[in-house]
Amino acid sequence: MPSLTTSHELRVLWRARPAMAAVLLAGHAAAGPRRARRGASGTRARQGGLRKVPGLGWVSADPVVARTVLTDHRHFTIVGEGGVGHLWAQILGDWVLDLFDGPGHHDLRTRSRELFTESSAAALVSGAWSDQLVAARGTLRDGGTVDVARLATVLVGRMMISLLGIPTAGPPTDDDAARAFATGERLASIALGSAGSTYLSGEQVAAAREIVAELTSGVPDGWRSAPPDTLLGRCRELGLGLDETTGLASLLMVAGTETSASAMSRTAALLVDTGEQHRLLARMSAERADPRPRAPGEPDAVENVVREGLRVTSPASVIGRGVAADVEVAGRTLRAGERIMLLTWSANAGAGPFRADRPYVRETRQLWFGAGRHLCLGAALARAEIAALLHALWDDGAPLRVVDRRAKSNVLVPGYERLVLTRA
Ligand code: HEM
Q: Can you give the pLDDT at residue 191?
């Protein structure tokens, strides 16, 4: 499928989980060409985007169906079988059900709205990452190589150590950061088998509880005494209790580690593999030469690539929900107790191949971050993280090439294990 995305991207998906890659590609094929679907009218055309697959339940690669489901909180639930809340309740306890859905979730989101704003995200990134990014830029300038996959792992691990107050022996090292990342990865891998069912075995629950205890061991201390300009201190100031803060901390760890690292290195690879880095460099240079004010919300060249990289990679390639009450969607009747998988990768990638200057795609909007009340809480942080890496790699104006790469195998979130870049 050469026009859908790059062969390297397809390999990344394939190595992560061949069965899931097959579902994503089949979903894309079944959704059909966008233009034809938009032109066709009514139920028949839309039904192609929603079908029942044995062993998986309802599956859709249609962005309109995905948004309909994610914003319909009366008929679909994240805490029913098929949603991630169902997984978490088994690990953390039933109190999670209130944190994930209904009034408890509404209250948590209202209180935590201020946790990651554009400006707090930028401050977090420059605080936790600037030394590593300056060093990587210097290495490339000197003609050396940078393993962007390792760099992304270390950066995201550092972010988690600083956000969650994970205890380290002294100032956190790159090894501490890689260890924190790997622990988050282990926790996420427990959800690997959940495509067919979100019920966990007793062993999986015990293993997950042990990891959560390890990752959140610094939370009680931080929640009690960390200054208000840290995440844990802010949680306390916002009135979140220790249970809620611990739950939120575990969520951040799982939701915001592999996803961010995946988007960072895959976007860097896409820029090189598609040759779009040249368009990016030209646009950056034009912006420097003529720094005109931008309209509110208008992205600069790097911000545009961040959005495009998120669209094409869609690291959370699937979002699951349980059906809470019988409902009709796209001409099909979904029954309470069934599950639905929204193939966000297929829905987003369907808008066309990676282009550094692609304008905003209205149909997908920001489906890579979900939609509705569970829309990614860390979206601003994720965008700031990816932008910071792209600036470090391309701000010097020189194109890069890939020296070596290896995709991760058997992981929930597709990504690179190694992506070594140097100046072209
Ligand atoms: C490229 C990086 C990221 C992607 C693609 C991504 C994607 C998503 C998606 C699709 C959801 C919705 C899941 C659903 O509806 O079932 C979500 C939720 C969430 N994300 Fe992200 N995420 C990213 C980074 C982050 C970061 C950096 C953080 C925080 C440190 C974060 C924190 C969260 C939280 C807390 C939720 C749950 C929100 C809720 O249920 O109300 N994410 N993310």
A: 65
